[in-house]
Amino acid sequence: MYSLNDLIKNKNIWFKNPDDCLYLTNFESSNLNVFYISGEWYALTDDRYIEAAKSKIKNMKVINISDFSFKNNFLPKIIETDNTLYIDENNFTLREYKNFKDRYKKIKILHIDLSNIRTIKNDEEINLIKKACKITDSIFKKFIEYVKPGISEKKLEKVILKLIIESEADNISFWPIIAAGENSASPHWKASDYILKKDDIITLDFGVKYKNYVSDMTRTFAVKNDVSIEEEKIHSLVLRGLNLAIKNAKVGVEIKKLDELVRKEFEKEGYEKNFNHALGHGIGINIHENPLIYSYNSEILKENMIITIEPGIYIPGKYGCRIEQDILIKKDKAIELNKANKNLNLKR
User: Fold this and answer.
1) Which residues pair with 308 in a beta bridge?
2) pTM of the full structure
3) What is the pLDDT of residues 318-335, one digit of tens each?
């Protein structure tokens, strides 16, 4: 992991990922490129956004470039040397790379991985994500009042979207997942015409965006507090895995250890093969950011990372259970940012 200051030291860099450009400028646009050249910042956009960009981007020189197809000779406006230019290896197409090389033969191009520049959150980012989580908690409390036998998944999808629109949130952070009955055995189920039954359990996975920062929360609960012994056992096991991971999440811990701890806990009960996705991921401007919390990631947790922990057990043809929390990594512990009820039997 590296900080932005470490990254840009003695380098000329082209930032192209829209999320990175938003992070660097606090300005959202469908056409925005950011350059760091010889210690100076430049933001390039087009006629549609130039006036708004000039008024909102205060820490950079804003340049109006109407054509990014490499037909216009825009780079010499900000590059007066033949120094190396680093480009984002994750957000540059092969065609763009070839076109660039053909036009600017004197500029040496090197690839660089920019995927970690947003991993460590500052105080402002932390507060915005906390606010997004607080809004999410409030929406969930209202949502559960609508969950009852006879209502469809699609109707509940409309309910959650309406509640988000009526909240302080600016937008959804991703399309919500609503899965009831045996549909809950599919982690990324798309809401259907399925009608909830009184003995169903339902999984809701949703989040909101607040001032460009997101939340991500999942709850699995009973429709009418009428659950089987096995369903109670599964929910209890998933909750135990969640709490175990959160208890061990702190600065200096290998990320893969969290995933391993949960899978070993599930293995004790014979459900290790029913957990079929990563344990979690980073959040921030985007709903999926670094680090990925899974068994092959040997990176260590660092202070002020914000990640999700979302263990799940899925039994095809029957049901599934997933519980997800957003957590803030601190030196000696993790702080849970979501406060919503995690019980299987909710008191409504």
Assistant:
1) 326
2) 0.93
3) 999 999 999 999 999 999
